[in-house]
Automatic annotation (TrEMBL), chain A:
Protein name, entry field: Biotin-dependent carboxylase uncharacterized domain-containing protein
Tagged with keyword Amino-acid biosynthesis: no
Record SUPFAM superfamilies: Cyclophilin-like (SSF50891)
NCBIfam families referenced in this protein's UniProt entry, alphabetically: urea_amlyse_rel
Carboxyltransferase domain: residues covered: 23-314
UniProtKB/TrEMBL annotation, chain B:
Entries under InterPro entries matching the protein: CT_C_D (IPR003833), Cyclophilin-like_dom_sf (IPR029000), PxpB (IPR010016)
Keyword field: ATP-binding, Hydrolase, Nucleotide-binding
PANTHER family tied to this protein: 5-OXOPROLINASE SUBUNIT B
Name of this chain's protein: Urea carboxylase
Molecular functions (GO terms): ATP binding; hydrolase activity
SMART domains reported for this sequence: AHS1
Amino acid sequence: MIKVKNPGLQTTVQDYGRIGYYDVGMPPSGAMDKYSYTVGNLLVGNDENAASLEITYMGPTLEFQQDAFIAVTGGEIPPKINGEAVPMWETHSIKAGDELSFDFVKKGARVYLAVAGGVDVPVIMDSRSTYTLCGVGGMEGRALQAGDELKIGNDKKQEVKEGTSLPEEYRLDFSGDNEIRVILGLCSYRLTEESKKRFFEREWSVTTEANRVGYRFKGERLHFVEREQPFGAGSNASNVVDLGYPIGSIQVPDGVEPIALLNDAVTGGGYVTICTIISTDLDKMAQVKTNEKVRFVSVDIEEALQARKEYRDTVEKVRQFVAQ
Amino acid sequence: MVPRYEYGGDEFIFVELAEEMSLEVNFQAMAITKQLKEDNVPGIVDICPSNASYMIRFKPEEIHPDDLISKLKELEKTVSLEGFEIKSRIVDMPILFEDPWTHETVMNNRDRHQDPNSTDLEYAARINGFDSKEDLIQAITDYPYIASMIGFVPGLPWCYQMVPREQQIEVPKYVRPRTFTSERAFGFGGAFAVIYPVQGAGGYQLFGTAAAPIFENEQRLHDFKDSMTFPRQGDLLRFRSITMDEYKKIRKEVEDGTFRYLIKEFTFTPQQVLENPKAFSDDVLGRLYA
């Protein structure tokens, strides 16, 4: 058991996600930064869909009531065992009675705590991920609270030696700009050419509305091509006949502030969507904080598939490194 | 229009069959996605038919997006509504119009509305040319709706009334969306009626509250044994205006775990609807309450 002494700002149980129920309006939920989540599981020898804790901005204080192997990956929210700083991206052994806590966030927004065996909560619709909006999955459908006790599961495939430390090249790099790659499309025909251009030219700053549901950005108003609204759409120029929203799609209600829809977002609705964040860069988005600036970069499908291939190659290299 | 095939990043294809809503195009999206399901194409993760469009989630390692688009274009050419059967359910949906809960939300949000001086029902009645809000309620409840899309949050049905275009009710969404909508609120936006499964944000005009749930994560009620969500695409829903007494009675049954929807299984074809929507609707209501 792991006892929650302090839950942190928002700590939830997440795995790879609740995949395959989009048609009934069930979003996937799951870890927002899939790379860090996956690497965490690899570092403790877990099945790659084992559930971890996703920790946002401020970490929890957890008391381990049994011996365990753990790894902390993702943004820089430095972990401490019994008050002593321990490195991230490394396999640690933690003993019964030890306390895991976290320092203030230095870089990024989210870290993942992987525990060998995974966090065991009931599997709902093939997943342990928490979807708080509808109270589905995770710890009683909600974020962790003080007093919760988490069971450790059996989703372990192999032993990983204590002290296994991931080489620098496979860790997150926060040195560059926040460039988020997107594929323009969906209903982008609704934007004026000038607005399409401006969307990619300028920087957008992340507002306080930035969470698992989505990120809202401040910048400038975007404009739509004038038209007589089609039957059933509603009267605003940003309205369309309600349609499906891809995960990572960006919509612009009334042209005012773009919103990127993320893991717990609505699956459809009546606002114009203009582009979609490519799957690899959703991880990057998850590590961006309120008030930070991002720039959207337009790529084509082949570039997106290439980025995806490179991502998978990197995960494969980490897999091989850990298996050595 | 010529359908648009669009990449939704590297994991989705979005197909807009038409910009405007119609029963024809909704049936077309249903027929294409049904055929795609039956074809068991490898690499497909989700098939999501919607109102006048549909969306596919796929694994690009198993099927290249361009190959998937070719497959979908082929279906667009070959799939026809001839002989397409929709296995459906006719369901009685009890609604308490002008209920105290949505009324409170309506009054708290006048600053986000087109017309701060009337209620959503009064406003919708006026812009649709009805003499009174009672006439609007009558028009909403006289003819059944088809659940033309499921989504937004789990189980929310977009419902499109099976009447000719000139009889369709159409309303704008709120000028600025609300941050609060009560659970089971019955709303209207564009040409669609909806029931909000859970409490949350929303931008549709609010007319009432459904007595029975459409989402139940504990799956206690009989109609939720197989799924947390009740409505399915293609369901034929009749919104029935009820009194506060009946509302309370249904709420008690829901709490006791004894509530069951009045459901009649029914298979129909798009032609039946398109040839004579009024006759079809009368037939549906006849079967439901037979």
